[in-house]
Structure formats: C-alpha cells, structure tokens
C-alpha cells in the first residue's frame, strides 16, 4: 500500500519586504513558481489548493490550478497552520495527492503604514471590529496592549522582558539579506522607541511589508521522487476561543494551549523535544504568550525565559530564525512564513542561523486578536 503520510515537499517565497512591481496575484504566482521549482514538480501535478484570500477562486484561476480539493479557510495570520491540518487530512483520505498553499500581499506598496490605524479618526469600520468596540476607538495594537498589561499585572512581566523578543528577532534578521531591518538592536532601543499603545512601543510591533509565500504538500510516497528531502507533518491542531477582543475569556491564555497539547500528542513528543520554534510575532506579547502556550515554560514565566536568552542565536530554543515579523517581514498574514522557515531549518538549509541537529520544529500561528490559533509540528523524520 502506498505511503500517504503527508509531507511538505516544496517551499517558495516571493520578494519582500517591498516589491512595488508585484500585485497580490503576482506574489501568489511568484511564490508558487519558486515552490514548484524547489520541489521539482509541474503545475499540472497540483490537484489541491488552499489560500486565505477572499478571492480564492479568482486566484486559483489566475494561477491556472485545476483542483479537485480546495480550502478557503481564512482566520487571519494562523490560516496557514489550519491549512496544514486540513491538507494533511485530505491527503490521508485521498481527496488530493498534491496540495498547493499560497499567499500574497502588497500592503506596504499599496497602502503603507495607514493600514490598521483606523484612519484619521482612529476608529476601525464596524464590519472589521464589531459594533460594540468600534465606537470606543480601539485600534489593532490596543487589543494586544490590553493583553500585555494583563500579563504584567498577573505575572510581573516587564517591558524589558518583552523587548528581549524584539532584540532576538533582530539578531537573526542580521543574517537575512531580505529582512526589512537588519541593524543591531538593544533592549534600550526598544524602550526608547515611540510608545504606540501602553506598554507596547514601536519596536514591540511588527513591520509592515509586502510579501508572499507558498508551500506544497504531498504523500511520502510521491516525495521519494522529488528534489528535496521531505519534511513530515507530525502533528497539526488548532482552536479558537473568541474573535473580538472584548470576548476574550482570559487575556493571559489562548486556544494555542490546547492546540499545542493535541499537536504534541499526535506527534508523540514533548515540548523539550522541539529544536526550534517559529511563533507569530505580530507584537512581542504575541510571541511571549505563544512560548508559554507551547509549553516551553509555565504560564507567567515567559518573561524570565526570554530574558535568559533561550530564544536567541545559540540558545536552546532558537525562535523566528529569519528575523520574524518584528524585523524581517509581515505582509498582513505571516503564518505561511513560519512554516517555510521551519522547513528550511529541518532540511539543514538555514546557513548561518542553522539550528544544530534540527529534527523537530514547531510553527505556531495567531489569527485575529489572539483569537484563532494553529500549531503545526514538523519533523525531518517520520514518527
């Protein structure tokens, strides 16, 4: 019987942080071409397709994908971790043999830094934020600031500890020639940057960039004939506790806690087995809460954990080794970049930021306002 174990066989990124000559469709197309070339596949080999764009069918048509299985799940930045979960199930069941997942955004070139500020009045449209929250002028960063303040109140987390996450990301970005910001960064630099929403400073916030990406999943059987060593999907789980920030049950915990436990159960691993982690870092508090949810330290101990240098280059848990959303790129929904970087590490292709003896990597996405969380465990070997 053919081995239908789901694997990732190809990855490709379009150009970032700024690519003014590429449209949204152009980012999808360039990333797809690079992923196909990486895998050694032809477009005609693709029979399943997923993206998080509202124009799913239009983009599939533009790309020339003739699919028999399709997934348009769109839950913000974690959408692509959900796609891994769904595509793995489809491949195991035989609904598709080879699935393309792609993303593209031109938000920096098209709109610049006005995105997410709510415009001149500082108020998001009701269809974006909900009729209760919008009248009070809350903006995106304000939602994360509330979570950060609560974490500080409950556990004594400090701005200096949050800043360590931005410093670690910048340390890795220095080795990424495509990263938006590469110059050295200190904790004091983060604290001296402009306050955006107390306690989050400008350098606690992700960059705004263009960019796109794609990855291809297939069966372990098919991957034996392809160009790259397969990366195995060992576990994939997800969950949602709320959407609007006013409905978040607890500002210090998210659905990632349960999702991680389930993904680890599927993979048959424990947190200490993980060699490297790619967390969503829309803000420093996002990454801190994911570190805790993924079990790398206890709830409330994320501050001391990052302060001890564990997530930095040479640490025991290198995190966001491409520079993350805080320094490399954040084109709106970054969850696909987490998977691409995890694959690069597991193949041993990360160059100067390669994690030694990397066999297990975790990609953990956050969608909405710490709302919809997806956790994917990837391995260089099957379970």
TrEMBL record:
NCBIfam families: PRK06158.1. This is Thiolase C-terminal domain-containing protein. It comes from Amycolatopsis acidicola. Residues 238-379 form the Thiolase C-terminal domain. One of its GO terms (molecular function) is acyltransferase activity. Gene3D superfamilies: 3.40.47.10.
